[in-house]
TrEMBL record:
Name by which UniProt lists this protein: GPI inositol-deacylase
Organism: Anopheles atroparvus (European mosquito)
Sequence segments annotated as region (Disordered): 957-979
Family (UniProt): Belongs to the GPI inositol-deacylase family.
Topological type in the membrane: Multi-pass membrane protein
């Protein structure tokens, strides 16, 4: 029973992760982005770049439409320059959405303040999976910066540009600054990265990525302060550059939100938290989502200043640029539980006073604690709603106020109502509380809200008696709601279960119609895969359509505040998860995740929550999928070790176990889990030892990845045996079809694979040297399959022959004779030695099967190099640099020996080889999960060790006949007796 469960569990895990991948593709959140349309046909004018002859694949273009194209062709640029850098596989044409909206804005401004958009053509190279391009791309972008500066003529010396980088393009923008060249740094005013893996790559598939990130990290660490802001500007060379990072959110399945922030960023924002965007965007959608494109251009336009006669540039100094970034891209307000700043002064030390005219306004003080006022036809007089501050009653502590369609910025203020006008207490002047207000997501209205601690407000301003909500006269429909409450009555605490809990829990049965705010505190949620599904259902609404806004605040993840809102829906589900892991140290680790729920007044709501299996699995797939290759290699090596450990040291003949049986044993999996966990905790005590990668992976995730890797290997093993058993002849036919259309050449090539495998290995080495190592590995996997199928044919032939002879001997008592020639043929077949020294063709297959899987894994790891070589073939026949070359040459050299020898040989030393396999398996899990490219060298070391062992190991028990000879002698004696 346990054995069957251990077989089924990995297969179920594989199905579960496949389901998570499907959920990631399009079943988490709908795409609510609006398309960006051009008014005229886009034009891309190529700009000459000095030094372009070194990079003929690349180019620089300027965007234009309509009559503006003539100015661009005449090289007349007078706006503030913006350089767009595309990402991995991205096109320079992706700039058109940003540039087209900016161009329309410039035309509306009579071409006064405007932006000049430039875009870099990087030949749509896949720099995200192949790091060999990154150095050349960085150098070319530096040349583009210099070319743009020269376009502005005499004022080019003072020209400063903003670089907008999408995906890997954001890292390239950071790289050109990292080189530290003064003529580049002084022309870069700011860097904006969009959905870019800034401090860590998505996957390290080659060492070029590793060295690229390390070089940038070292340069920025020396020349840039961490989280500079305004306090440390000017202290280091790079501190004067505005650095903004933007992430796409849960819909971005390529670069998840935890990778988009940087420790060097002045500001980090997520699209679902940017005002007037309020939604998550996928990786490519960020470049055409109209809501985001509009906000980005407003931000860039806000930094434009006149720069000489009829020309414009970006503002000097970082202070104003950062203020604009905070205004357009961030939510700068005070939370109810944040520390209050001095209310009597703004940034300039002057009071922000609001002057009132009571004779033109309606001053109303309502004794109700919670109410909503709607004016569907507008208001003919300004209304000032007075909310009394009652300092000693807990029921009057917190105030939640919200306005819709208010056209006044300073709509919230506080004052001491000591004046009297027309039998009403009034204030002629009040102090603005605009720094406590924030926009609330809405696609239909201008919606603003504030959450105030009235007791704290009274303590800091003892003379104040009221908070004022001022709604100016308007012809638009307007609404405001007031909700005064005791925070203890609106706070709900939830503890995240350590393991999965399928039950749904009701935390709010029936909220009052006047309740507009609830806070849910989620404790013990620390890992990024942990997810809670919050279900909010409108039970009944009093003539209004239900709108729910949920704000998720993670205390240890600055800039990751997330908004989710649904309009005109009776029921909605919001998924709560931490975007980054909770730090192990610091006071913030004790704070829970805050979920603020804002209801529409007039509706009654029902709230339930439960763990979300589908989103949890989807996030595991998104963030930990690249750990599977390391675990597959480790489990395969442990299974191979078990295969080689079937024979006792004193036995005369070496025996290889079955791969399927070794994989289905629970011991290797349990050993890998426990030992790597213990080593991860033990080795971290030694600073001289490199950091263990598996230590940061949660235990439940490690178990799932282990089981999924085992399931993949089991499925692959069964599929391979089926392919070998049923597709052997088909593989031979395919080889004949692929070969030259000359029958002799095809037959010769096929016979060479069977009889001269070393020659084929030499041919594969030549392919690796002249084309790409990954191509040669794929060809080696195909040749290996042909050899295994041939070995299986020999095994079936001998098995059928020996079985028929034994049946004939038992039933007829003699060997059938068809004449002397037939008898001699049978005798020759009987005395033929098998393919290896052990005398078992099936054991040959068992020995080579894990090696074949290692070759397949190695080939799959280097598929990015193959794709890169194919895309770049018309520029160069050979991939340079080639990260797969050294591992490919090593493995192919070893295969040349293993294919030529009668392996496995009946020799000593398999115990030492098995111990080495265990060590490499543990190293693969400890050090190759994130740095995936290290698996190339792990597999190469395994092949090298096996080859050396097969060559130099001494034979077992010289002078003792092996099992194959004894079996053959017994069969000959049986035949003689029958005769």
């Amino acid at each position: 029973m346990f054995f069957r469960l251990f077989i089924i569990l990995p297969l179920v895990t594989v199905v579960l992760l496949l389901y998570g991948a499907i959920v990631n593709i399009g079943y988490i959140e709908e795409n609510r982005c609006r398309m960006t349309y051009m008014f005229e046909h886009p034009q891309y004018s190529r700009i000459p770049v000095q030094g372009n002859e070194r990079f003929p694949k690349y180019g620089l273009y300027a965007y234009s439409e309509g009559f503006i194209t003539q100015r661009v062709q005449q090289r007349s640029f007078t706006g503030a320059p913006v350089l767009f850098v595309p990402g991995s596989g991205g096109s320079y044409r992706q700039v058109r959405s940003l540039a087209s909206v900016a161009l329309r804005k410039g035309i509306d401004n009579s071409w006064q303040a405007h932006l000049d958009y430039f875009s870099v053509d990087l030949n749509e190279e896949l720099s995200g999976v192949y790091g060999g391009y990154l150095h050349d791309q960085t150098e070319f972008i530096e040349l583009c910066v210099q070319a743009i500066v020269r376009l502005y003529g005499a004022r080019g010396r003072s020209t400063r540009m903003v670089i907008v980088g999408h995906s890997v393009g954001g890292k390239l923008a950071q790289a050109i600054v990292a080189d530290g060249r003064e003529h580049i740094v002084r022309h870069v005013a700011g860097i904006v990265t969009i959905s870019a893996p800034v401090d860590r790559p998505v996957a390290l598939l080659d060492h070029y990525h590793q060295s690229f990130y390390d070089r940038i990290e070292q340069a920025w660490k020396v020349n840039r302060s961490v989280s500079t802001g305004l306090k440390s500007r000017g202290l280091k060379p790079f501190d004067g550059i505005l650095f903004v990072t933007i992430g796409g959110g849960i819909r971005d399945i390529i670069v998840h939100d935890g990778l988009t922030a940087s420790r060097y960023a002045d500001l980090h924002a997520m699209t679902h938290n940017i005002p007037n965007v309020w939604l998550s965007v996928d990786h490519l959608c960020a470049m055409w989502c109209l809501q985001f494109v509009l906000v980005m251009n407003r931000f860039l336009y806000s930094m434009i200043v006149p720069n000489g006669r009829s020309s414009y540039g970006f503002v000097e100094g970082k202070t104003l640029m950062l203020e604009k970034a905070n205004y357009f891209l961030a939510q700068n307000f005070l939370h109810a539980d944040d520390e209050y700043v001095a209310d009597d002064a703004d940034g300039d030390g002057k009071k922000q006073l609001i002057v009132h005219h009571p004779e033109q306004e309606d001053w109303i003080e309502d004794i109700r604690r919670s109410f909503t006022e709607r004016y569907r036809a507008g208001m003919d007089r300004t209304r000032v709603q007075m909310i009394r501050i009652v300092p000693d009653k807990p029921a009057h502590r917190f105030l939640r106020v919200e306005v819709l369609n208010s056209e006044q910025t300073n709509w919230l203020s506080g004052c001491a109502a000591i004046d009297v006008y027309s039998n009403s207490r009034v204030c002629h002047k009040s102090q603005s509380l605009a720094n406590y207000t924030l926009p609330v997501p809405s696609s239909k209205f201008d919606r603003f809200g504030a959450l105030l601690d009235l007791h704290e407000l009274k303590r800091r301003n003892p003379r104040w008696t009221h908070v004022l909500v001022k709604i100016p006269r308007t012809f638009k429909p307007v609404q405001f709601s007031v909700d005064v409450f005791n925070p203890a009555e609106r706070e709900i605490n939830v503890t995240m279960p350590h393991w999965f809990d399928y039950r749904r829990h009701t935390i709010l049965q029936d909220a009052s119609q006047d309740d507009s705010y609830y806070r849910i505190n989620i404790h013990e949620m620390a890992q990024t895969h942990q997810t809670i599904a919050l279900d909010l259902q409108a039970i009944s609404c009093d003539g209004v359509k239900g709108t729910v806004v949920v704000k998720v605040r993670v205390p240890w993840a600055e800039g990751y505040d997330r908004y989710a809102f649904q309009e005109d829906l009776n029921r909605t589900t919001v998924y709560i998860y931490p975007p980054i892991e909770r730090p192990l140290e610091g006071n913030e680790t004790l704070l829970p995740i805050n979920v603020d729920v804002y209801f529409t007044p007039g509706c009654r709501y029902h709230i339930r929550y439960g763990q979300s299996l589908r989103v949890s699995v989807a996030r595991i797939v998104q963030q930990y999928f690249m750990l599977i290759p390391a675990h597959c290699v480790a489990l395969l090596l442990l299974a191979f070790k078990d295969q080689l450990s079937q024979t006792a040291p004193d036995e005369p003949a070496f025996v290889v176990g079955k791969l399927r049986s070794s994989l289905t044993k629970p011991a290797p999996l349990l050993v890998l889990l426990t030992v790597t966990s213990l080593l991860g905790k033990f080795l971290t005590l030694f600073k001289a030892i490199p950091r263990i990668e598996s230590f940061s992976t949660p235990v439940p995730v490690s178990i799932l990845i282990h089981l999924a890797s085992l399931g993949v290997l089991l499925i692959a093993t069964l599929a391979l045996w089926g392919a070998i058993a049923f597709c052997a002849n088909f593989a031979h036919k395919i080889i004949r079809l692929i070969s030259l259309p000359i029958p002799v050449m095809s037959s010769t090539f096929l016979s060479c694979i069977h009889k001269f495998p070393v020659a084929i290995a030499v041919l594969l080495v030549a392919i690796a040297l002249t084309a790409c190592g990954g191509v040669s590995l794929l060809c080696a996997a195909a040749v290996y399959f042909v050899l295994l199928s041939k070995a299986y044919e020999d095994y079936l032939e001998n098995f059928v022959f020996h079985t028929a002879r034994r049946i004939a001997a038992r039933f007829f008592g003699a060997r059938p004779r068809d004449g002397g020639e037939s008898s001699d043929g049978v005798r020759r077949r009987r005395r033929r030695r098998p393919a290896n020294e052990t005398g078992d063709e099936l054991m040959v297959i068992n020995f080579h099967l894990p090696l074949f899987f290692l070759v397949i894994l190695l080939a799959l790891l280097n598929v990015p190099s193959v794709i890169t070589w194919a895309k770049n073939y018309h520029y160069s026949n050979t991939l340079l640099p080639d990260p797969s070359l050294v591992p490919a040459l090593t493995v192919l050299g070893c295969l040349a020996v293993l294919w030529q020898l009668n392996t496995p040989r009946n020799v000593y030393g398999y115990e030492i080889l098995a111990a080495l396999l265990v060590i490499v398996a543990f190293v693969s899990v400890l050090y190759c999960q994130v740095h995936v490219y290290r698996l190339n060298y792990s597999v190469a070391i395994v092949f090298l060790a096996i080859t050396i062992h097969q060559i130099i190991a001494p034979k077992r028990r010289e002078g003792v006949e092996d099992a194959g000879d004894s079996e053959e002698k017994e069969q000959i004696e049986d035949d003689n007796k029958a005769e």
